[in-house]
Design brief:
Order of helices and strands: HEHEHEEEHEEEHEEEEHEEEE
Strand content: 25-35%
Number of helices: 6
Strand order of the largest sheet: 2-1-3-6-15-16
Bound molecules: arabinose-5-phosphate
Shape: globular
Radius of gyration: 17 Å
């Protein structure tokens, strides 16, 4: 039977938006699941919920504006109460993530890092035993010197490919390129890979989100599952 992924994404988004409270500064993610979060949050705002939001991409900013969610920025608020975002892969157990399939990983990581709580919303197709099982790892690099940066990443054991869009290199909101990096096998130690990549000159950031999620809301065909790291509340 074909499972309706959008129905699952919407269900996960709806559960996450229930955690938003009056007066909060909310971090908004990027991607189709995060888009459902924006829609549901907008409905609550229309019914009187008072929040301000910091978007993790120009795309999400535009969507939030059109739906009437008041936006703010880090100039006004250094800290976010709760950020909600999608992911491309979620490791069961650790709740570590690969993000950046949509190219917004840098702003997404800044938003996640500034948030007291970071709730991830996914359908169950995104769950993996180890990261890198399905997805190459997106790495954001400066345009200057990118072939040299790609060479340095190759020496770390990956095969980087420059992301393309419409026959040209894809450019991020920050004006950088993305290298989609395939590793020979799934990652045993994503924390080390995250750090090593970020020590490479030219790398702005990478899509590994290690030990950042407070909770992951997973939508299965049979219902919602909330996974938390030991001793954390969603
Ligand atoms: C955006 O850069 C990514 O990190 C997204 O969170 C990811 O691609 C998930 O997108 P979907 O919800 O559309 O699968």
């Amino acid at each position: 039977v074909e499972v309706d992924r959008d129905r699952l994404k919407r269900a996960a988004a709806q559960r996450a938006v229930e955690f938003v409270e009056h007066g909060m500064v909310v971090g908004l993610g990027t991607g189709s699941t995060a888009g459902f979060v924006v829609e549901q949050l907008a409905e609550r705002v229309a019914r009187g919920l008072s929040v301000v939001a910091i978007p993790s991409s120009e795309h999400t900013a535009e969507m939030a504006r059109q739906l009437g969610i008041p936006l703010t920025s880090f100039a006004e608020h250094r800290a976010i109460d709760l950020a909600i975002d999608g992911a491309d892969e979620v490791a069961r157990g650790t709740l570590d993530l690969i993000k950046g399939g949509g190219g917004a990983l840098l702003r997404e990581k800044i938003v996640a890092a500034a948030s007291r709580r970071f709730i991830v919303v996914v359908d169950d197709e995104k769950l993996v035993a180890r990261l890198g099982q399905h997805m190459p790892l997106p790495v954001e690099v400066t345009q200057f010197g990118w072939p040299a940066t790609a060479g340095a990443i190759e020496r770390l054991g990956a095969h980087p490919e420059l992301r393309q869009a419409d026959g040209r290199p894809f450019v991020t909101d920050g004006g950088n390129f993305i290298l989609d990096c395939r590793f020979a096998r799934p990652l045993d130690d994503p924390g080390t890979v995250e750090c090593r990549l970020n020590l490479t000159p030219g790398v702005v950031d990478n899509g590994l989100f290690v030990a950042r999620s407070t909770a992951v809301i997973v939508a299965h065909d049979s219902g919602i599952e909330i996974m938390t790291r030991a001793e954390e509340q969603p």
